[in-house]
Amino acid sequence: MFMKIFRYIFLLLFLCRRSLEHSVLKRSIDLIAAHSLVVDSRLPREIAPNSYTIDLHPFPEEGYFKGNVKINLTWHEPMDKITLHVHEDLIIDHSELKVTQYVPDDEKLRSLSAPYEPVEIKVKRSEVIPKQPLYIIHLEKQLKTGTQCVVDMTYSGKLYNDTSEGLFRSHYINTLTGEKQWFVASQLRPNLARKVFPCFDEPAFKANFVVSIVRCNTMKSLSNMPLSKSEELRPNSKWVRDYFEESPPMSTFTFGVLVSDFVSVSVNKTNEDNSGPKINIWATPDFINAVQNTTEKIYTSVRALEKLWDFKFPLPKLDCVALPNYQGTRPADNWGLIFFKESELSGKGSWLITHELVYQWLGALATPFWWSDAHINNALARYVTSYITLQVSDGKETFHNWPMTMLYSIYYEFSKRYPHGKVMAIKQDSSSTKTELLFRMLNYTLGEKTFNSGLQRFMADRQYRTFFGDDVWSSITEQARIDGTLDESITANEIAGSWISKDRLPVLNVIRSSDGTTATITQRVYLRERPHDVPEQEKFLWWIPIVLITQDKLNFSNSFPVKWMKREREVSLSDLPKKDTFIIVNPEEIGPFPVNYDATNWNLLAQFLQSDNRNKIPVNTRAKLLHDAWNLAYAGDLSFSTALDMTLFLKYEREYLAWDPVFTMIDHIGRHIDGSGVHKKFLMYVRMLLTPLYEELGIEAQEGESEGKANLRSSSKVFLCQAGYKPCIEEAQHAFDKWMKAENPDEGNPVANQYICPVFKWGSKEEWEFGLERVINFPPGRKPSERTYLLKTLAGCPIDSWKIEKILNITILEQNGNFTDNDIYLVFSMLTGSSSGYTTLFNYLTKNWNGLKKAFENKPQLWNSLITSSTSVFKTQEGLDMVTKLYKNKQHDFGTADFVITKAIKNIKEEAKWSNDNLPVIENWLQKYLNLEKNVTASEENKFL
Question: Which residue positions are annotated as catalytic (predicted)?
Answer without folding.
Answer: 356 (proton acceptor)
